[in-house]
Amino acid sequence: MIVTIDGVAASGKSSVSGGVARALGVPYVSSGLLYRAATLLGLEARLDLHDAPAVLAHLQGHPLRLEPLAGGNRIWQGDRELTGELHSTRVDAGVSVVAALPEVRAWVDAQLRALPAPFVAEGRDMGTAVFPHAGAKFYLTASPRIRAQRRAQERPEDVPAIEAALVRRDELDRVQSAPAPDAVVIDTGPLTLDGVIQTILAQLPAQLTSA
Ligand SMILES: Nc1ncnc2c1ncn2[C@@H]1O[C@H](COP(=O)(O)OP(=O)(O)O)[C@@H](O)[C@H]1O
Ligand SMILES: Nc1ccn([C@@H]2O[C@H](COP(=O)(O)OP(=O)(O)O)[C@@H](O)[C@H]2O)c(=O)n1
Hints:
Layout: E1 2-7, H1 13-24, E2 28-30, H2 31-44, H3 52-61, E3 64-67, E4 74-77, E5 80-81, H4 89-99, H5 102-113, E6 119-123, H6 126-130, E7 136-141, H7 144-151, H8 159-173, E8 184-187, H9 193-203, H10 206-209
Helix pairs in contact: 1-9, 2-4, 2-5, 3-5, 4-8, 7-8
Bound molecules: adenosine-5'-diphosphate and cytidine-5'-diphosphate.
């Protein structure tokens, strides 16, 4: 059983996926961490992030391991844990460039498809490209201002700067970030985190919640 939760930047995907996954007793899978880790490695190696062969060769030489736990995902390169370094402003600024490289997307998709189900998968294209046969699909939205206000709790910049960066990233991510035709779209703006989680749980097919 796979449930997909896609959506725009800072719409609540990872917090909501964690809550849904805990309620179902399964792990969640944060696909964005793989793109973020690929970006961090590329920045550290001073690669041109537009250079697909260079980024891919570097990834193949420095394999990443995603640990999809219900309580929060962790990601490793060899013995080094990268998780705490992935939500910086510099990774935010570079990640959409790396995520636009088809070779990197194919590499990430292969990592994700190798994970053992059941799980909740969150990202941009979980319900469209990666797991089109998922048992239930959701897509989260909220206005840029609300998302920036939420993210301001986690970043040093002020709300207008965060909002501008989110809008720019939404634009760069637009190609791979569209709701699946069979996804339920949820505007999280007027809802609490728990409200979003309960909305999703209430819409899951009975066979998923009893599995
Ligand atoms: N519906 C909501 N109401 C209030 N805060 C929320 C809601 N959803 C998410 N948040 C908060 O917004 C921030 C961004 O959420 P996060 O799960 O990291 O989003 P994403 O994975 O889409 O980037 C977190 O601080 C989270 O607690
Ligand atoms: N399935 C995915 C997940 C993330 N991404 C890319 O990775 C970036 C970071 O995604 P994320 O989900 O960790 O971060 P937020 O957008 O939630 O801040 C996105 O801006 C996309 O460029 C993607 O292209 N496809």
